[in-house]
Each structure stands twice: as C-alpha cells, then as structure tokens.
Amino acid sequence: MSEMKWELLDDNVFVYLVADLLQQLEFTAIQYQGDGPDGGLDLFATQLVALGIQTPQPFRWGIQCKFSVTAKRRSVGDAEIKDVEGILRSERYLAQELRGYMLVTNRRITQNVIERLRGIDARSSFRASTIDGTQLELVLAKHPSLVERYFNRVQATVRHLGSPTLVAQFDHTVSPSVPTVEVHLRSAYSGANSKGVSARAILDPGAAVTMIPIYAVHALQLREYDSVSVQGVLGGHQVAPVYAVTIELGGTEIGPVGMIALGAIDYVLIGWDVMKELIVLWDGPNESLQVWAEEANSEQDVGAETQQSGATENPAAA
Known about the structure:
The protein is built from 8 helices and 16 strands. It is α/β, with parallel strands linked by helices and 318 residues long. The strands form 4 sheets. Strands 10, 11, 12, 13, 14, 15 and 16 form a 7-stranded mixed sheet that branches. It is elongated, with a radius of gyration of 23 Å.
C-alpha cells in the first residue's frame, strides 16, 4: 500500500474526502454541516443497517472529522472530543434525527477517547463508532480512484475519439515563482447574481482544458453533467467528473465552460479552452496579461520546434 500524502490536504478537503469515501461505501443522504463551532459535527450520512433477518433500516450518523498533516504522528485526545451525547441531542441537530456518532480521523485515537465512546455505545440510546488513521488508509487503499483524485500528482489525459490528448502536468500547490491571477467562479446553472467563489489561477496554454479544485465544486454545489477518462502519472485510469462553470477574469466573463474537477490541486488551472476566448476578448487594461499568455504559448511552440529540429539534425539520437 502506497503512503498517503496527507500534506496535500487541509481540514476542509479532508471532510470532502471523508464524504466521498462514505458515498463509495454506499452511505446516502450525505450533508455538509458547514462552518460551525469547534467540536461540532462536520457531516451527516445515512447507512442502511440490517438487524438479523429484518429489512435494513436507515441509521443516521453525525460525523466528526479530525485531520492533521502529520497524520498518525498525532493523536485525537479528550480535549478535542466534547460532550458527544449533548451534541447529538442538541436542538441544532434535532432535524437530523441522529442515532449515532462517528469519529473519522487520519490520526491515532487515544485510549481515553476510545473508552469514552465505548461507554456511550454501551449505556445510551446512541451508537458510537471510530475510524482511525490506520483503518482509514486501509479502506482508502480499496478505492484507488479516491487516492488518485486526492493524493497523487496528476498528469491528466483526456481521451477524445480514442486518442489521448495531453491536458497538463502540475503539482498540488502553485510555486511562489509562478504568477497567479484572481478569478471568480459560479455555477453555469445559477443566475448572474448568484454567489460564487474566488480563487487563485494560473494560465497554461499547454493545457487543453480548464481544471478546478474539488473545494470549489463543493462550495458552488455544482452538478456533474459529463465525465472524461483521466490517466495518472503511474498509469491507470479514473473517470473525472466535468462541471459547467462560468469564469470571470479581468472583467471578462466566459461560460459555460466544461471544467474537470480534481482534489490534487488547490488552484484553478486555466487551459487553452478559456485562454483562446480571452485573447480574442481582452484589450486595454488586460493587455499585459494577454501578452504574457501569448508569450507563454510562443515559448512552448519554440520549444517544440527546437526539440523537433534537434531530432532531425541528429538522427542517431532519435
């Protein structure tokens, strides 16, 4: 089993990972709690539970996620787990009709916390369950598409008419030396006055399509309308969802644009599908950014020509 690169995630992305994993495990009606007081619940999910020969009944879990980039080198202790029964009974979560509490973490769990939760399981009407870092990694290993989506450096390939076309190769975080621009995203299915999200973006003329981070998908509550086959650096394929998004950059709005969503990035990668529209539309104050985009594309073309010329001049090397 390959080591999980937890440093690529943060607290919010970890919650998205847990939600996606629960969906893979056939939990339903998954809801995000959103921002709230520390010590509260992060997710709600329903599991069908069968007792003996009875028909499976819906069991509603309140799920608390605890994340650390150092993973199993840290533990979840008593101070981080508040009054679990009080939380489950609180008016804030009354409408959820919760029947159980689940702690999911990529860290270790102290014995004190384990015993406290066992006590709740034994003496109250609520059930309690835990998934620690070791268990989580074992379960994730059975779902390679999630590992690829959230942990691996990605070289994306979109298959069109059976022929793979290179999209881009990129790292999780933008290097400080790479210029970024501010963009605004919103769902293409929402109104012009709907709330969107802002994000950092880089322009890559070598990328065939535009890609957005998974946190933007959740923030905008986007609906998948298509999918493409994406190939990882080490081989293997996954099906990546495509979302219809409107993007605003430099005072210009373009959309809807079909964008691939990946958990392996924390920025927007603007590909040639959007850049070619911007170069036609931009003028005046956006001229410098337009020139930069054109120069970047020119440099790529020159590099390709140089490589081809070198191969021609030195057939033996080819």
